[in-house]
Amino acid sequence: MKKLLDMLTEEMQKAFEAAGYDGALGRVTVSNRPDLCEYQCNGAMAGAKQYKKAPIMIANEVAEKLADSKVFKEAAAVAPGFLNLKVTKEFLLDYVKGMKADAKFGLDMPAQPKKIIIDYGGPNVAKALHVGHLRSAIIGESVKRIARYVGHEVISDIHLGDWGQPMGLIIHELELRYPDLPYFDESYTGEYPTEPPFTIAELEEIYPTASGKSKEDAEYKEKAMEATFKLQSGVRGHRALWNHIISVSVADLKRNYANLNVEFDLWKGESDAHDAIPGMVQYMKDEGYAYVSDGALVVDVKEETDTKEIPPCMILKSDGASLYNTTDLATIQLRMEEYQPDKLIYLTDKRQDLYFEQIFRCAKKTKLVKPETELLHIGFGTMNGKDGKPYKTRQGGVPRLENLIAEINEEMLRKIKENGETKGYHVDEEEAAKTAKIVGLAAIKYGDLSNQPAKDYVFDIDRFTSFEGDTGPYILYTIVRIKSILAKYKEQGGDLEAAQLQAVQNESEKALVMELTKFNSVMEAAYEESAPNKICAYIYDLANEFNRFYHETPILVEADEAKKAGWVALLELTRDILESCIDVLGFGAPERM
pTM to 2 decimals? Predict the structure, then answer.
C-alpha cells in the first residue's frame, strides 16, 4: 500500500504536468503551518527560475488543474507561490479503510528481505547487571523488533564477556577458597559435579574481591593469569568450572532480561571466537593485510579521504596476546560463515565510535565481509541523574538493574493506588502489582527510547512515571481508555467485528485519521534510521489526537448507530496501531489501569 504522501505527490505531479511543468516539482509535504493547511507544495517556487515565471503564476495555473480533484478538497495558491492543500474526507476514508483491512496497516514488505544480526546487551558473566547495561538492552531490543516488523530476518546475539582475565581471577579465587574441589586436581579423571560449587550471589561477590586483590598483589595477579592460560589451553578442570560460571550467570541474566522483556536468539560469547583467532591471524598475514609495527601486529585502515587520524587496527599485542579487536573480528568472520548476514548492527556506548570505525574498516579491507555487507554501529549516550552526571544511587554507587526496576515498580504501584483512592474505587493489591510492573516497564523504556539514541538523557523517575505528558504511562492510559470504550460498546450490545469505518464527521476526527495515515512512513523511517524515538514521537501525537477526538465526540451516547459503529471502528484501528507501536518498542499495555 502506497504511503499517503506518495499518493498526494502523484496527484500533484499530474497537476504540474497538466499545467505544462515538470512533474518532479509536485512533491507534497506535511504543512509546517497546520493553522493554514494540512499539506503543502513548494514546487512553484523551485520552478520559477527554470521557467522564468513568477512562482505565484505557476502556483495559480497548477491550482486550476486541481479544481476537480477527488484527492484535494482545497488547493490554494498563496503569495509568493506556495500551494496550500487540504484533502477530501472521502480520500482519507478510503485510505484508512485500506489500512484497517491490512495485517500491517498498509506497510509494504521489502521485495528482498535482509538477514540482519544485531549484537547488543554485552554483559560480563559473573557480574550483576547495572544501569549501564540498560540502554543497550532497551535500544537493541527495539531496533530488532522494528526490523522484524518491517519484514527482515533478524538474529539477536547477546555477545557475552565470558573469556579472558576475569575468568582467571574467579577461578584462582575459587581455588584459594575451596582447594579440595576436584576441578583443581589435575590427576582427577572422574566426572565433575553437575551442580556448581557456588550461587550467583557468591559469584558476584567473588569477582570484585579477586579483581581488588590482583591490583594490590602482584603474585595474586600472576596466579590469576596462569589460571586464565590454563582455561584457554583447555585444562579439563578449569573448563568444567568455567562451564559452571557460564550456566549460573546465564540463568540469572535470562531472569533479569526477562524483567525488561528482552530476548536473545543467541547466547554466544567472546569464547566462541577463541579457536577461530589463530586461523584468522594467519590469513591476514598470508594475504599481506597485517604487518608488524613496534612489535604488534596491525592492519592499516586509514583512507585518503579521512579528515581525522584513524590509527591502525591492532590484531595482536607485542607479546602475541589477542585483544577485543581480535575477538570482534573473529566473531564477524564466524557470523559471515555461519549466517551470511546482509547487515551487522552493534549497540554500544557512543564513546566506542572510533573503535568500531577501525573494526569495520578492517573487516572490509581484509575481506572478512562482502563489499556489500552493511556494518552499523549505533552509539548511545549516557543515562544521567538530575545532576547531569551518570545515574547513581543515593549512596553514590551504580544501581543494580533489578533494584532500579523495583524502584520504578514501587513508584507506579503507589500512583495506581493513589489514583484509585482519588476516584473512589477499591484497588485489588495483586492486580495493582501486576499492572504496576507493566506500566513501570513502559515508563523505563519510553523514557529511554523517546530520546535520540546518541543523546545523553536525564533519568527522572517522577517524570517518567507520570500519567500526563510525553510518557509511557500516558500512552498506556490512552490505550486502556480506548479498550474501556470498546468494552462498554460491547456491553451495550454492539458488535465490534461488524463495525465499519464511516464518513469522517468532524475536524477532530479528521485530525485523528490524518495522524493514523502516517503509520507506515514512520515505521519505515524508524527502521531506516535505527530510530525508535520516531515511533515514540508518533504515538505521542496519535494519543493526543485521539484524546482530543474523545473529549469532543460523544461516542457511546450517539443515537445514530451507523455513525457510532464508524467511530468504534476508528477506535479499534487506533488501538491496534498504538499496540503495534508499543510492541516494537518492547512493552505492552494492561487491560485496566
Answer: 0.95
